[in-house]
Amino acid sequence: MKFVCSLLAGIMLAAIAGCTTSAPKKMPCNDIDVATVFRNELSVLQDHRLSPQSEQKYNAAKVLYKHV
Q: What's the pTM value of the predicted model, to 2 decimals?
């Protein structure tokens, strides 16, 4: 019985430890700091001179997706 209890406790600790290693936190999209922190990326996305399929717009969108 003691072995089963210690085994269950070990499994629960492993599950808890696994849950704490999550992906890096993202900023909420409605945070007012997004406009200042990602000013360059937003200006690239809003630049009408660049093609919608340009590499600059792709990279800017990728940065925003990763952090917001």
A: 0.62
Classified as helix, coil or strand, 28 is coil
DSSP type of residue 23: P
Whole-angstrom distance, CA of residue 26 vs CA of residue 63:
11
CA 56 to CA 25: how far, in whole Å?
24
Q: How far apart are CA 68 and CA 26, in angstroms?
A: 5
| Cα angle 26, 51, 63; round to 5 | 15
Tens-place pLDDT, residues 34-48: 999 999 999 999 999
- Rounded distance, CA 29 to CA 56, Å? 21
